[in-house]
Amino acid sequence: MRNLLRLCPLLLAAALLFGAGPAFAGKRVALVLANSAYQHAPSLANPVSDGSVMAKTLKEAGFDVVESRHDLSALDTRRVLRDFADATRDADIAVVYYAGHGIEVEGSNYLIPVDAKLERDTDVYDEALSLDRVLVAVEPAKQLRLVILDACRDNPFGKTMKRTIATRGIGRGLAQVEPTSPNTLIAYSAKAGFTAQDGDGANSPFTVALSKHLTTPGLDVRRAFGFVRDDVLKSTGNKQEPFVYGSLGGEDVPLVPVKAVAAAPTAPVANPQADIRRDYELSLQVGNRAAWEAFLAQHPDGFYANLAKLQLEKIGAEQAHAAATEKAKQAEAERDRLAALGAQKEAQAKAAADANAAEQAQFAAQKAKEQAQQQAAAAEQQRVNLAAAAPNTAPASTASPTGTNVASLTPAATPADLTRSVQTELGRVGCFSGQADGNWNTSSQRSLSQFNRYAGTKLDVKVASTDALGTVKAKQSRVCPLVCEHGFKADGDKCTKIVCREGYAVNDDNECEKQRAAKPAKPATAKRDDGDERPARQRRQAGGAAGGYGAAAGIAAAAGAGRRSGGGQVFCNSGGCRPVNRGCHLEYRGGGGPGNDANAEVCY
């Protein structure tokens, strides 16, 4: 009972963090459409691969229904949308993702099936799928209707499409759209009127960013698309900017809510330092000001209290830096505004002075923030080292009523050592596959981002911090799922080859699919040899020549005589027919008719 009362402030702080979020979402359904193999336009390399990535991402996020289809005709697409609309009737969240060709005609957007020809501009009304048809499919969802279009490519029919009316507008990319239904968002891979890039890899930059951020537990869908935008701008050199149309209310709407974990009752622990350490680590995982203040209210003195104070100072320095940065931006904007308006020199001079002062304050806040972060990191590293050496003990000085002097906490490791430790721990939980070289590069940041995604944490991925080290180290088993190549599946900590039974093969979704029966081969057609064909022609010509002169009886008699003489060939001309002399043979010379023998008797 004493321990339960002691932990109440910390549990309350945790409730402030986790309890403020939305309730766990109800039924979630998704439809993934991807078109690559166009029949009357150039094929696209990435859409089917992009669709597979998004289907896998949504399945791993716990969606109740994830229907994935690719390379559909117009008729099949309409049927799939009709069936998906039935699945959304009792759903809270409905998501449609489409990768492929899209086109804008007269301000309306259309998705292009693989069998569309679009020989003239009006064909789009018959052979393509209107974006409004997709919105109808997600309309029954109660909480969120989300349509994602990775289709902002050049019109593949633009050069050949005939214009039935010269003034009919066919735009570049997709047109801007404003959803009329509430709680509806439409996300484009590129802003309206612009085209998107397929990227150099197997997936487009937009889909890569979506799979990274969209299903982060507890992350509002609007913030997730903000992170997607930042990633795509960075990876494309600011050439492609994703855009989201529509609006939601004031409550956060995450695609993957954070699941509340009930605190399990703990047995009494005799060692008080172990209790304090566990309370400290709980506050470290929560990581906000309320948690640290609750910890200090319960443990005002000692080694861990001094560490908590450093964490509070770091949070305060970060907040002060954020406020100074915002103030500097406002002062700079005011200076530029007055300069653009041509205000009086005194007003411009004052604005310039204010902007300079705000910039200096921002610089000082940055320095204070970095110093506070370094002190907190050094102290946390010392704590980690002490915990590893003696898990249930603390320095002897913690028994002193005055506690440990904060100034005595000197760095126990260099930044490179801290980075290597974080990389090593990320590798242990399956989120990092590189070498622990102490270089916090893009690969390391991506690994920590993956950890955040699957562990439900919000660690800063830009730096290797002691917060990250402590949080990752607290995980006792694999966190990030094992990712295997196509044709292989995860089996524990290894990738094993997928073996399908006879008649089945691995499809694009890495599942065994029944193969279609092969068409029977056509029987080989016998061909006559030229050597066999020529004598036949000769025989036909010989017969034709004889028949041309009405000597059928002569041919038969001569043939009989030839067989008696042993020659076997018959020579016919206007004088009649006779067996070919011994030692001679007939050669076909062409022609035939009166006065022109088709065959000649050649003797050796």
UniProtKB/TrEMBL annotation:
Region called Disordered, residue ranges: 390-412, 511-548
UniProt feature, compositional bias: Basic and acidic residues: 526-536
Keywords: Coiled coil, Signal
Signal peptide: 1-25
SUPFAM superfamilies in alphabetical order: Caspase-like
UniProt name for this protein: Caspase family protein
Pfam families with a match to the protein in the record: Peptidase_C14
GO molecular function: cysteine-type endopeptidase activity
Feature: compositional bias, Low complexity: 390-402
